[in-house]
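Changelog entry: the non-specific serine/threonine protein kinase record was regenerated in this release. Current contents:
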Amino acid sequence: MARLLDTGNVWWQSFDHPTDTVLASMKLGLDRETGINRIIRSWKSPDDPATGDTSYYLDPNGSPQLMLYKGQTKKWRSGMWNGRGFTSIFNTSVVNDDNESTVVWGVTDPTIIFRIYTHPSGNVRRATWNGQRGEWFESFYMPKDPCDYYGQCGPNGNCDPNRDAGEFVCSCIPGFEPKILADWSMNDGSSGCVRKRSRNSSCGRDGEGFVKLENAKVPDSMTGRLNKGMYLDMCRQECLKNCSCTAYASSDLASGIGCVTLYGDLLDTRVFADGGQDLYVRVDAIELDNKLGQGGFGSVYKGRLLDGREIAVKRLSRTSRQGTEEFKNEVQLVSKLQHNNLARLFGCCIHGEEKMLVYEYLPNKSLDFFIFDKIEGTGLDWKTRFNIIIGTARGLLYLHQDSRLKIIHRDLKASNVLLDATMNPKISDFGMARMFEHDQMEANTNRVVGTYGYMAPEYAMEGMYSMKSDVYSFGVMTLEIVSGRRSNHYNQESSSLGLIDLSWDMWKEGKALDVMDSSTIASESYFKDQVMRCIQIGLLCIQESPKDRPTMSNVVFMLVNATSVLPSPKKPAFISKRKFVDPDSAAAAAGPTVPSINNVSITDLEAR
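Regenerated structure tokens:
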């Protein structure tokens, strides 16, 4: 009689012959000694256990990566193993040597029972057993968002699901341009991108280099070469020697030794709000020189006027959703504004399909570069953070009240606040701004634009915007500056959905300082009362009802007058009392609340 072990395995090694399911400690992948390749395949249908056409396996070629197929079509891949894990896949370990190339899923609590299985619909799921309820609780599935689907933006395309509301998720990787512009204009990036044509290709010449794409899923490594003994700088030199090499990345973040060089088209690249890794893309010298950055609307380059003034040229991409109307709107508005906390516009150019804006050059990039980067954030002490909060508030007050015009920005966020040489903040990007009459209080739009996490509820759900919409965005950004966290980032350790939930919970419990960025705390150069005041002001600005939020004149007054008494904030907007149970915790296995949901607001935005 075969003996069943506690792990669920049978003595005759049933784990070597999986069907549609993988369990904890079970290997998936290739045993090079026996030739056994463990693959899981779905049922034909939920009611028919015959072998279906959805398969899930570990690809041993190059750097190992998990692959999901529907028939012969690639549906999703995990991204390559980077020495620490796969992107978006938790508690895995990989062995890749001469004997095997396998992956194993683990648990932090051995009493937890879970399974990874393929579903006939074409996805892979993770479910945890709830013993008390006698049922499986599904906690994970892939593909999930549009950018999870393999090759969503075609060869040399980059998929970003965190774009502004209504904006196309696809863009070309630096150094490339749309292959079929007409398709991209219709929000179809499947044709991908091709290398930009250059009169003088710099391959093998001085000046050629690489642009770093952060928080990326490294492209499909099937065309790559794994170099286990190379440091990144050695990998860079190796890539420069071969004109077919298009990119490189670290293959082992844990040790720092090892890299993968990629050749030909870069397939299935995407970026994440958090996570991912650095990808270094090869570009011609002409692309590399003076390029300051790249955003959703195009690239920004450094230049110099004839009189010697340094400038930043914002060149809109041809596939940008900012059309001529928004472009002219930005020019007309910004040209009439002059304030120390607003980016100054020098001029513009419209020639055929080319649209460019010429701004003053600000050497310290944007605010998000500092507050969301663990390394750069260490150089941002509390005094600087507080001055940025006050400066941004003054710039917004000028727009709302003190300028000749009454302007609602509609897209205030950390990436739209630029920093000059002295770290003085300057609000930029007025493409979505709207001008009000001085007696006008609010307006309505059928086209909701902006960035998820910063949009006020009345704007996101009803299209109603006003000065209080900007106040809401300012409140979110203030909490981001204090905490160093993104507003839409889920923090698993706090069991909270995001920054707003965390800030509100900590405030109610009298632990508001726990929200503060750890790098600022380590510097011991902050004033607790000042930090508490900023958190409270941030919460006042994100209250659910617009009438409860302060005006920007009140915000500035509260910031600069340390003795002024602040009202207690009411419940913020978009608060959800949903507590997710970690599927690897004892509560998930035995607790009766998996999960509980109460008072959930759902916003469904549809672009036109």
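The chain has four domains: 14-144, 157-289, 297-360, 367-575.
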